[in-house]
Each structure stands twice: as C-alpha cells, then as structure tokens.
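Table 4 source record.
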Amino acid sequence: MFKEDCLFCKIVAGTIPCNKVYEDEQILAFHDIAPAAPVHVLIIPKKHIDSMNEVTAEDLPLISDIHRVAIELAKQLGVAESGYRLINNCGPDSGQAVQHLHYHLLGGGKLGALTGISDSHT
C-alpha cells in the first residue's frame, strides 16, 4: 500500500532519495538525515502502516523481519557489541513525526537516558 502524501512512501518509491543501507522486498533502511547519534538508521516497512497502533496479526511476520534486519544492521554498522538502541515512536506525544511505521537504530557512542528511564538499577 502506498500513501501519496507520506514522506517514507515517497522514499520507498524512489521519488525522494535516501542513503540506503539495506533493502529487500518488504523493508528499507537508510541513514537519518538529522542523526541523533553517530549511527542513526531508519528501518521502515515498504508497506504503508501509520504506526504501531495499526499493526495487525497479518503484519506480525513483517515486524519480526524488521527486528531481524535491525540485528543484522547493528552487526554490519559495528554497534552490536558496544550496544545500540532500537526505538519505535508511536503517536504525537512520543515524537512520531512521520505517520509511517519506522524504527530508529541508534548507536556508536554513549547514548543518553530516555526520560529518566535507565537500566542502571538492574
């Protein structure tokens, strides 16, 4: 499904260029144009899905594939061992700026705490 007014659908269609790091029949990954970390890649399904709230049972294999690709990219980009963050923002209060399901893969240095959430207590 393609949505005419969707930035990421236009990237998938090739009408807007991107710095691609991965592509298969269902998934595209590319460098973020405004990176928040030394490694900042966006991983998107080629199928338009507005957000995680719109994922159906039919889409679950695709979500699994996105996570598999994230693991592969973390290794390829050299952040698997040192650590990385995989983030999906869902809805306006989360900071989701593009209404097309996407994940941010961040790494390549110490990443700051997210809204006071830390794993240091475990």
